[in-house]
Amino acid sequence: MPCDPVNKFLPDSRNRGSEAHAPNYALPTGFHRLIPTRSVMSELDRILATELEAWAASDLTRTLHAVDPVGSRHLKHAGGTCLNFASNDYLGLTRNPGVCQAAAQAAQELGSGSGASRLVSGSLAIHHRLEEGLADWMGTPRALIFGSGYAAALGVIPALVGPKDVVILDKSVHACCVDGAHLSGARLRVCRHNDLDQLEDHLRWARRHVSSSDGGRILVVTESVFSMGGDLAPLEAVVDLKERHGAWLLVDEAHALGLFGESGTGRIRQLGLEKRVEIQMGTLGKSLASSGGFVAGSTILVDYLIHRARSFMFSTAPTPAASAAALEALAVIRSFEGQTLRKAVWDHAHRICTALRTGTTPDSAILPVILGAAAEAVAAARRLREQGLWVPAIRYPTVPRDQARLRITVTAGHTHEDIDRLVKAITPLAARIQQANPAASES
Ligand SMILES: *Cc1c(COP(=O)(O)O)cnc(C)c1O
Fold first, then answer.
1. Which atom from ligand 1 is nearest to the alpha carbon of 152?
2. Which candidate in 127, 174, 193, 242 is catalytic?
3. Which of 15, 103, 279, 339 is most exposed, with minimal Cβ within 10 Å?
4. Is the peptide bond between 97 and the residue preceding it cis, with omega within 30 degrees of 0?
5. Is 227 labeled as catalytic in the residue annotation?
6. Nearest ligand 1 atom to alpha carbon 173
7. Which protein residue has the closest C-alpha to ligand 1 atom 5?
8. CB half-sphere exposure, 110, CA atoms < 13 A
9. Given the residues 114, 148, 194, 227, the one annotated as active site
10. pTM exceeding 0.90
11. Ligand 1 atom at minimum distance from 153 CA
12. In angstroms, rounded to a whole number, what is the distance separating the alpha carbons of residues 327 and 316?
C-alpha cells in the first residue's frame, strides 16, 4: 500500500490505526504518536535493504572494521594485529610526540571545542597562526582552513562558479571536487584522465558556451597526485592550457603535501607554479596528521571565500587541538626531521618497485595493484589480512567498476622488514602494478 511518509510522522488522528506497531517501551501518553511507527521504519528499511542486497551481489558491501592503532604502523582488530599499509599519515606524524603534545596542550588551554563558527566567536588565534603557516609554506599570500578537505571543496567550488559557468574535471578527481562541481550548478565537462588534448577541446567548448561579457567563468579542477592511482597530473601543461584559454585552475594537493618539494610543499610549489594556480587545496588529515582542510591563494580569494564559502561560514570552527596538531606537524614537515621522514617514504616506495621489478620508479607513496573485478580485490585484501597485512580493496564508486584494486600506501613509520614482508605477500600480483600506472610508464 503506498503511504504518505510525511503524514506518518505527524500526530495525526489518521495514524491512530497503526499505534499497535508503536514501540512497546513506556512513553508519556500521546508522545508515541510522534515516533515513527514500525510500519514506516520497515518500509524505509525494506527499500534500503533492497539496495544493500544489490550492492552485496556486486561485491560492493562496505564494512566498518573497528581497529585500534598500535604505534605508528600496526592495527589491532578482532582477527589480530596487522601491519598497516592503508594509512595516508605518510610521515607517521600522528604518532609524533611533539604533535600529540601540541594537541593535548591546546585542548587543556583552549578547550575541547571552538564553540562557534569562525564568523561568530570561533576564530581563534591558533587558527590564524595555522593559516599564516600554511600560506607561507604554499607560497601564497593567504590560506583559509575548513572542517575537512571535503568541506573545503564543497565550499570553494560553488563560491567561485555557478549556472552561467563551466567546470572541467579530470575523470579521476576526488569525490569532493565532483560533488562541489555538481553543487555549484555549473555546466560540467569531464576529461579522460590526464588527457591534455581533451582538456583543450573542453576549454574551447567552454569558451564558446561561456559569455565573458556576462561574467562567465571557466574552472579547471585536477589533483597533483591522484588519490587512487598514485600517478601525477602534468601540472605545467595544464597551467599553460588554462592560461591560454582564460580559465582558472584548482589543484588538490591532498596526497602531495609533505612528500614533494624542498620542504614538503607539494607539487605546485616544487614546480614553481604557485603564482599561476589560482586555487590550491589541501587536507590536514594526511601528512599533516590532524583533521581539516584548507585553500591557499590570494588575499582577495580568501576574503571572498569568507563571505561566500558556505561550508566555511555555516560550520563550527576546527577544534583547537586539531589546529595545534596541524601547526606542529607543519613545523616538523619543514624541518630537517621532515626531510628524513620524506626520504624514508620514498625509499620504501622505491624498494617495492625494485623488488617487484615493475620497471618503473614510484610516482608517489600510493601503489595501486589493479585487479579488475571487485570480488577479486576483496578476496586479495582478505588473504593479505589473514597474513597480517592490512591493504584495502578499493572498489566502485571510489574507482570505475572494472578497476577494483588494492591500494598500498607506505609511510615513514614502516621499516625495511615491513616492506619486505609486504613484497613477499604481493609478489604473485606484481605484474599488475605496472598496468595500474600506464601514464607513468609511458612518460
Ligand atoms: C582525502 C582527500 C580529500 C578529502 O580530505 P578530508 O580532509 O579527508 O576530507 C580531498 N581530496 C583528495 C584528493 C583526497 O584524497
1. 9
2. 174
3. 339
4. no
5. yes
6. 13
7. 149
8. 22
9. 227
10. no
11. 10
12. 19
Catalytic residue among 127, 202, 242, 286: 286
Relative to beta strand 68-70, strand 74-77 is: antiparallel
Contact in structure between 146 and 361 (CB atoms under 8 Å): no
**Cα diameter, the chain:** 73
Does residue 159 contact residue 258 with C-beta atoms inside 8 Å?
A: no
Q: Whole-angstrom Cα distance, residue 211 to residue 379? A: 51
Give the active site residue among 131, 252, 363, 418.
252
Known catalytic residue at 174: yes
Tell me the C-alpha distance between 340 and 77, whole Å.
Answer: 31
CB of 138 shorter than 6 A to ligand 1: no
Residue 150 Cβ < 6 Å to ligand 1: yes
pLDDT tens for each residue of the chain, 443 residues long: 333 333 333 333 333 333 334 444 444 455 445 555 556 679 999 999 999 999 999 889 898 989 999 998 999 998 799 999 999 999 999 999 999 999 999 999 999 999 999 999 999 999 999 999 999 999 999 999 999 999 999 999 999 999 999 999 999 999 999 999 999 999 999 999 999 999 999 999 999 988 776 778 999 999 999 999 999 999 999 999 999 999 999 999 999 999 999 999 999 999 999 999 999 999 999 999 999 999 999 999 999 999 999 999 999 999 999 999 999 999 999 999 999 999 999 999 999 999 887 778 999 999 999 999 999 999 999 999 999 999 999 999 999 999 999 999 999 999 999 999 999 999 988 766 545 554 433 32
- Known catalytic residue: 21? no
Strands 68-70 and 142-146 come out as unpaired
| Cβ of 96 less than 6 Å from ligand 1 | no
For ligand 1, whether the C-beta of 230 sits within 6 Å is no
Q: Report the side by side order of strands in the sheet with 142-146.
A: 142-146, 293-297, 279-283, 248-252, 218-223, 166-170, 187-191
Q: Which of 150, 250, 409 to mutate to test the pocket of ligand 1 (most atoms within 8 A of CB)?
A: 150
Distance from C-alpha of 294 to C-alpha of 147, rounded to nearest angstrom = 8
Ligand 1 centroid–CA 29 distance in Å is 48
- Is 278 known to be catalytic? no
How far apart, in Å, are the Cα atoms of 39 and each of 13, 14, 275? Answer: 16, 14, 59
* Nearest alpha-carbon partner for 408 in 357, 359, 371: 371
Residue 358 is classified by DSSP as -
* Cα-to-centroid distance, 253 and ligand 1 (Å): 9
Active site residue 128: no
- 414 in active site: no
